[in-house]
Design the sequence.
């Protein structure tokens, strides 16, 4: 074997060893996970009321005084909205046709299950809403500023410290905001449509997460939020995720589909089921399909 | 009090907040303070997004049948607590506990229930007045 071939073989072998070593170091986080405290009850609702979510889940961001005053005002408005909802009234709003939470909400208070797929160069978090977080662990830096724009899931890079995945995220834009200047709303959800603003982070917010398995059925995310525009000091907030008990595959949480909760005259209503089922495009015998009758 | 999240269609609260609201797919039309028990026959179990529905035929005092729409939550959420698409079948005799519609129409929000094979997934003891 010539020297170049030997070198190539050695490099290939080394690459295999490095790759195998890296794979061997990847933790097994397979399965489906759900946020403890945001899990469904028998009817699929939250186990926790809004008050329970506020008291039992860690929140308490060190909001700057001027932001806290704004948040207090927003919370007062939200309480009025909730009072209207409790009377069956629609307090109004603009619909966003998606089950989108965005980061960091998707980690802090989403009721949707998710998977984590660690590989040597990238770890992917996939939520049942089809929200996806890409965390690049190949040694790269954050995307250069002239190539970067804010998105609901931000720009994430990471590295492994043993079995702990350390994620660094910037460039987050709220999926609920029309512009970056509106900031990133962090909400607590619970009860029947219960919600409360916790903080509004700026577009300059910087997030560091440490995700690790604390036992065979639980993962932990230790999140630190650095945002001098909104916070007086770094905000440390932890979440625990448990294995989903009854389903062992991902399914799509589609927030559209058969819509039966129209607002009529300012009040929420319940519509009857569609009266007609669309005919299949191709009949079982393979004959040309006849024009289908649209649902009435 | 039963609690149901409904983030399904997240709305923007445009009141200077840029915050998400959970209002659109609301369960506010159901009276959370009341529970009613229905006994009837399943006409259809609609395993649909965003929410699953039971179409239930309930006999009225006059002997006729009235169709009720019982709203549950999403297939994803129900599957996580043990529900399956075939949990109810047309013709099944079931007892369902619901939060009724505020306007008195034939609809409600599922709380718990019992079918031919016993209690449905995660269902606690039933309560409320019989319909």
Sequence:
């Amino acid at each position: 074997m010539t020297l170049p071939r030997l070198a190539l073989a050695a490099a290939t072998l080394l690459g295999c060893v490095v790759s195998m070593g890296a794979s061997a170091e990847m933790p097994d986080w397979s399965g489906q996970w759900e946020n403890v405290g945001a899990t469904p009850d028998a009817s699929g609702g939250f186990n926790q009321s809004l008050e329970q979510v506020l008291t039992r889940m860690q929140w308490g961001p060190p909001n700057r005084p001027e932001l806290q005053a704004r948040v207090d005002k927003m919370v007062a408005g939200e309480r009025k909205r909730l009072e209207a909802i409790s009377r069956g009234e629609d307090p109004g709003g603009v619909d966003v046709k998606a089950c989108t939470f965005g980061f960091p909400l998707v980690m802090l208070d989403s009721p949707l299950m998710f998977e984590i797929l660690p590989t040597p160069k990238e770890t992917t978090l996939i939520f049942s809403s089809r929200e996806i977080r890409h965390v690049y662990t190949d040694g790269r830096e954050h995307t250069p500023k002239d190539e970067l724009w804010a998105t609901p899931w931000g720009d994430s890079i990471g590295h492994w410290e043993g079995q702990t995945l350390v994620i660094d995220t910037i460039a987050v834009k709220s999926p609920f905001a029309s512009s970056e200047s509106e900031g990133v709303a962090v909400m607590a959800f619970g009860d029947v449509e219960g919600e409360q603003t916790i903080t509004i982070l700026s577009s300059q917010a910087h997030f560091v997460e440490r995700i690790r398995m604390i036992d065979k059925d639980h993962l932990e995310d230790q999140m630190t939020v650095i945002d001098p525009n909104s916070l007086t000091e770094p905000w440390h907030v932890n979440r625990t995720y448990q294995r989903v008990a009854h389903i062992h595959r991902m399914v799509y949480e589609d927030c559209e589909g058969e819509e039966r909760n129209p607002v009529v005259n300012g009040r929420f209503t319940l519509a009857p089921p569609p009266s007609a089922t669309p005919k299949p495009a191709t009949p079982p015998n393979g004959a040309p399909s006849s024009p289908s009758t649209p649902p009435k | 009090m039963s609690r149901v999240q409904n983030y399904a269609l997240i709305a923007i609260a445009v009141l200077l907040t840029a915050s998400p609201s959970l209002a659109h797919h609301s369960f506010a039309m159901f009276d959370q303070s009341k529970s009613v028990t229905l006994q009837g026959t399943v006409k259809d179990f609609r395993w649909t997004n965003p929410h699953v529905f039971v179409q239930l035929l309930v006999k009225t005092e006059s002997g006729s049948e009235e169709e009720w729409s019982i709203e549950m939550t999403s297939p994803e959420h129900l599957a996580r607590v043990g529900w399956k698409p075939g949990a109810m079948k047309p013709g099944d005799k079931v007892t369902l506990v619901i939060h009724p519609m505020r306007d008195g129409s034939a609809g409600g929000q599922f709380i718990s229930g019992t079918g031919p094979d016993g209690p449905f997934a995660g269902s606690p003891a039933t309560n409320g007045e019989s319909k």
